[in-house]
Amino acid sequence: ARLGTSAHLRPGEFVVAMGAPLGLTNSVSIGIVSAVERTSSQLGLRSLQAARSTTAYIQTDAAINSGNSGGPLINIDGEVIGVNTIK
């Protein structure tokens, strides 16, 4: 897969979350970007490490659970723009 950038990603754009949830292979879910550059505190990540983190998160309504957490988040051009994370 090609690597892309989330720098120009905007709310309302479509994304695809890939992974292997619940032991299923090749699972794909589609979603819409709700927000970009969410902070850890906005998402309720309150650990000491998260409080110091400068990581910006992409919020999407694509189904992401423990199985596809760690899989790629892909834009409509087929580029990897993020890594799926579940808190």
Question: What attributes does this structure have?
Answer:
mainly beta, 6% helix, 6 strands, 1 helix, six-stranded mixed beta sheet
Task: Describe the protein's topology.
Elements: E1 2-3, E2 14-19, E3 27-38, H1 48-52, E4 57-60, E5 72-75, E6 79-83
Parallel strand pairs: 1-6
Antiparallel strand pairs: 2-3, 2-5, 3-4, 5-6
How would you describe the overall organization of this protein?
- The protein is mainly beta and 87 residues long.
- The protein is built from one helix and six strands.
- The chain has a six-stranded mixed sheet, with no helix packed on it.
- A hairpin with a 3-residue loop joins β5 and β6 (79-83).
- 18% of the residues are buried.
Q: For the residues shown, what is the average pLDDT?
A: 84
- Terminal CA distance reads 25 Å
- Portion of residues in helices? under 10%
**Count of alpha and pi helical runs:** 1
- β-sheet strand percentage: 35-45%
Shape type? globular
The biggest sheet, with number of strands, parallel, antiparallel or mixed sense and barrel status, is:
6 strands, mixed
Q: What is the gyration radius calculated from CA atoms?
A: 13 Å
Q: For the largest beta sheet, what order do the strands appear in spatially?
A: 1-6-5-2-3-4
- Low-pLDDT runs of 5+ residues are none
Secondary-structure content class: mainly beta
What's the β-strand tally? 6
Order of helices and strands: EEEHEEE
